[in-house]
Amino acid sequence: MGSYRTLTLPLLSLLGWTLISAFNLDTDYVIRKTGDANGLFGFSLALHRQLRPADKIMLLVGSPRARALPGHKSTITGGMYNCDINSLSQSCQRVMFDNEENLAAENKQNQWMGVTVQSQGPGGKILVCAHRYQRRMFVDSAQELRDLTGRCYVLSEDLTINHASDEDGGAWMFCNGRNRGHERFGSCQQGLSATFTKDRHYLVFGAPGAYNWKGVVRMEQKNSSLWEETSFDDGPYEVGDESRLDFANSYLGFSLDSGKMLTKRGQLTIVAGAPRANHSGAVVLLKKDEVKSYMLTAEYILEGAGLASSFGYDLAVLDINGDGWQDIVVGAPQFFIKDGDIGGAIYVYLNKEGAWDKITPKKIEGAAYSMFGLAVENMGDVNLDGYDDVAVGAPYDSNEAGNVYIFHGSPQGLKKAQVLGGKDHNVKLFGYSLAGNMDLDRNNYPDLAIGSLSDSVFVYRARSVISIEKTVTTTPKELDLTKKNCGENICLDVKACFKFSVKPKTYNPTLMQYSIKVESERKKLNLPSRVIFTPRSANDYESTGVVELKSQGTESCVTRGLKLQETLRDKLRGIPIEVSVEILNPSTRRKRQNALPNLLPILDSNQDATTVQFIKEGCGADHVCQSDLHLQYKFHTREPNRDVFNPLPEENGVPILSLSDQKDIVLEIKVVNQGEDAYEAQLTSSFPKSLSYSAVRTKSGVITCLANQNGSQADCELGNPFKRDAETTFYIILNTGGISLDTTEIEIDLKLKTTSDQKQLQAIKAKAIVKIQLLLSLSGIAKPSQLYFTGEVKGESAMKLASDVGSPIDYEFRVTNLGKPLKSFGTASMIIQWPKHNSQGKWLLYLMKMTSTGLDSFICSNQDEVNKLGLKVEPSVSRTKREIEETPAKEGTVSLFTDKRKYTVLSCEDGAECITFKCPLMGMDSNAVISLRAYLWNSTFLEVSMLHTLQTTLRLCFLLIFLVPSYNAVRIKREERGKEEMDPPEKKQWMTSWNENESYS
User: Fold this and answer.
1) Where in the chain is the domain with CATH 2.60.40.1460?
2) Which part of the chain is the Integrin alpha second immunoglobulin-like domain (predicted)?
3) What's the CA gap between 349 and 363, in Å, rounded?
4) For a designed S-S bond to 184, which of 179, 468, 599, 826 qualifies (C-beta 3.0 to 4.6 A apart)?
5) What dihedral angle (degrees, nearest 10) is formed by the CA atoms of 982, 983, 985, 987?
6) Average pLDDT over residues 566-586
């Protein structure tokens, strides 16, 4: 097959598609033609012009499932129809050909005649094919064989078969008589695609079923009249054979087109699609082989990028950018991206003087499930701007109603222009076939035919495009704000002039409506206009009127006055003025008298504009204000209820905010201008969620700051203009109510803005580290502070009442918050280490209950350790009587303050087994109290006292913690212990004391 170069398609940035307003394909007077139901009328289309014996415009429609003609033995054969677009009737006439059937040699049942319909152009031939046509052998025998060879007919321009012409007739069956079997030519399916070359010399056939569906492309012609011109270059030429290593099922020849400005100037190139090549698709650029005179060889191969994308299903050759070289648009209707909203794509190859190996295509994607790119058609220059345009079918778009997307050519490539929808006609699969590049209504603009699978076709005619040349001038050209030129005001005049051109030149509109708009961008932003029309119009932004247009090329002008508003802020940016026009046509729709009523022209969509500049003071001779703004910042604290600001301390140059009870912090801002005047100078500050704007203070002058609703951003006006060498310092006060324990730092974005010219105005981030200091005080007391033990030693099983255990003791812990409510930050917890047993496992303190006040709820951990034995509480009267009547079993003398006595301290670290209670202080505001009721276990101490005379102190350990992430800087100040005087020591005393631990976390 010869050497060739392969191009791989990279994934490019996408061009999103949205529905856009119509341009010059008319949607009011669409021509509709219909065929018999279920005939697939519209599966293929061709626009044709007959020159002899009479000049006629025809729409040719393939209907591959149409009923057979009377001469057939089969019932469904397909056929071609001729539709008269000048007729109001929607029906079309069946073209009479292929009206016989020889069952001894062929079978035409379901042959799909009309699967392809092509016109050679004005006065040229017609090509129509049936790719499922069958040749029969050994008919009515056990050895009967059938080959799906396919067949094509060539008709003369008047849709008849001229037997004197070598081309006319149905003998175009190049697979017939060749080696059989699907691995050779037994399933050739010639005619699934077919076309004429652009030079009108050759017919080109695609046979995608040949060679095990590798596919074959064949080019030939049979015009014996060329012999007289000594031209014997008739072919045939083929590409494809069984010895090639191409993958089976490539379907080469599924789509076809040609050009003579693709690889070399004047060289004929056949462009063939192979939508299943390499499982993704390919397009092959073929030329005549320079060695083998009967071969076509691949010069370039364009490879599809998406697996199973059907790249090459359809294609079109056209000159998109008007450089004289022909470009290629390739459809890939099954392209998709996993989990994406994409359903099909087209690839646009802009030719680089034949260097296809240097081309990077642009991909345009369709909507999900739309099969965008199933049909691609060269429309010709539909708007006569000098660039070829393209139509792309997406028949499954809009819930299978179908859409057709129109793209205009331009020097930069394809541009979105118009969308035509099947919903407008209540059909399905609109856009399945396309035909264009021919003027049907003789207005010099090519029209477009669109087929559907609803047995209906539609013709959209192109409207003439009026190009209006507009010029806009102002007097004066610049506005001097120091000079009043109309009384106490400043005024200017706007002059707009128009002249038009249109094809055909005989068209001359009479009236045109113009619109002069000012300040369009400010209107979008709901800002007032800086100028008003004089005399004042109903709309400050727009003035409209009507002007008479004369012959083409003749200028017509209008003048309107503008007055500058007194309250003017933006003195730097010019005042934009836009002029648009609209041709005044009859407002009532004319009744349709014929199939081709005259269409009203449409205006080109461009509009002219100008800008009136201000004469700017303090900006140099070039009137360009080059400011040089600089910003410095510093964090401060604010004394309560006073505008006294103190700088924050720093660590390694970073401010440290130690937050306790402060409601505000302050950001000092200093701005200087070391350049020319800065117009509309402004500082925009964006605050984190932890801060919100509160107020602004200045040292001198006036600074106005405007904050948004939640205080997350503030815009501060610095001056208009902020003069050369100007300097200002002000203070932005920020509320700290949003700071939580998760706040490790604060970061404020500061952005200077000006309409003057200053390119290096980057945003500055003002940062500070946050350390939260909680002003918590913790105190505790035990009542009584001294206890006596006496009585008999009893076992645990003998304990029924709490008073059986021993003497009661009450502990009370008070937490006081002197700073912000804890609810603002999180939840504090108290940790209590409770001495339950001694080292021998004997009870020490029996915890009976735990209560609290000042908290929303109070649930400590290890709740099962409270009243572990389920003892009952004896009524206080009975208990007192019992205590009074009780006689000590043994007495001893113990003194706390005698050094000669043995002194024992039981703590959780030494001599006591402890239980840890973690008690969250839920909902604490200013203070909370935790109360514990416990009983001294007499028996344990009686046993010890029998062996030793001792004084024992129990240490109850508690601390206050705060639930904070480990990386946060949060300090709890040292707790303060309450001072309580103890009772004097007495006999056989059991004395408890408590110990506080300072904790930071």
Assistant:
1) 465-586+597-615
2) 619-768
3) 9
4) 179
5) -140
6) 78
